[in-house]
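Example 3.2
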Amino acid sequence: MTQNFCGIDFGTSNSAMSAGGPGLATALVPLEGEHVTMPSAVFFNVEEGHTVFGRGGMQEYLTGYEGRLMRSLKSILGSQLIEESTQIGLKKINFRQIIGLFVEHIKTRAEEHLDFSLENVVMGRPVRFVDDDDGADQRAEDELRNIAMAQGFKNIVFEYEPLAAARDYESTITKEELVLVFDIGGGTSDFSVVRLSPEKRSGDDRRKDILANAGVHIGGTNFDQKLSLQTVMHDLGFESGLEGDLIMPNTPYINLSTWHLINTMYTQKSLSHIRSMLPHAQSPELLQRFLHVLETQRGHELVGEVEEAKIALSSSENVTRDLSHIEKSWVKKFTGADLQRAISNDIEKIVDTARQTVENGAGLKAENIDAIFMTGGSTGLPGFAHKIAAMFPQARIQYGDKFSSVAKGLGLAAEEYYG
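Structure, written as tokens:
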């Protein structure tokens, strides 16, 4: 019996959904205006007493409304934070509820657009939610399953996100290929070696066509963090000196550069900690700027500027960001060299994991790979494609939609399961 169904790509940075049903072809669903993707962001507007999601929530935060912005919610899955709560105005809300609110929102938006209810879903998951901890990795999937059930989904299947991307690519090919799928998302980098062909598209069980899976917990938000520490955090006193040949502790700067930890820096405890070091600072003007960012709660805004600079450096050698809206006369220049220094080690680890997936996981040689299918927002970073091409010189590099290939593939998987 044909049923209504959907596929949800709940991403660290962005989310998307595709859906279909009787008489309705599987397609991406607009989630925010005409946009088929939306930032995985929730803003609790304390000033006006409402909750806003995606671009709208980020805009209200940047406009200056009093409240709490939450981003990179997916990073909380599998961590101890899932059991904790955060202060929203006069009340506390736990992180499990916050993720539930986001999933509920995109489900409701899709149902309003489609004019039918959704109970059957294939949800994407990274190959590894948590590196080197199978128990925490399974708990992360279980948490997401329970959250989806709490929002009204009755039948829930999980599929690896790179496999979903492979389904999207498979819909375009005309002959059998061995494909290495790269999915470089906001929080993880996932890889799959898959045998694809036009004849296999409608197969019910594709497990035998999956030759290897692997993943590493490095993605776009890690690049944001590293670039932030390489650049703007030095303007706030990162690695600056204290009296007695000491230096400022790293943790406050790491937290202020990490999307899902920024809010922890707005507590009175954190503010008091930084203030206590001000009399001992060799560069007190930098710590004064740090305090200003914390006291005015501009951390998300600052890391957002770093993210924009990272994206711009994909096509430019240099970019300048005007930060005077955060502090008067603050202008910051970012260079390709800054980005290279910041992320080179992570890129090397990602590329090496891809090599191991092919050689150790699938038992193949680099020359056996016919094509590399790349999706995810960070695949356009400078030098990345060059390193991949050098490691797999005989493979064609193909690009899917950076932000919706996984959602398209999850919808195709849902069509096979439920259609």
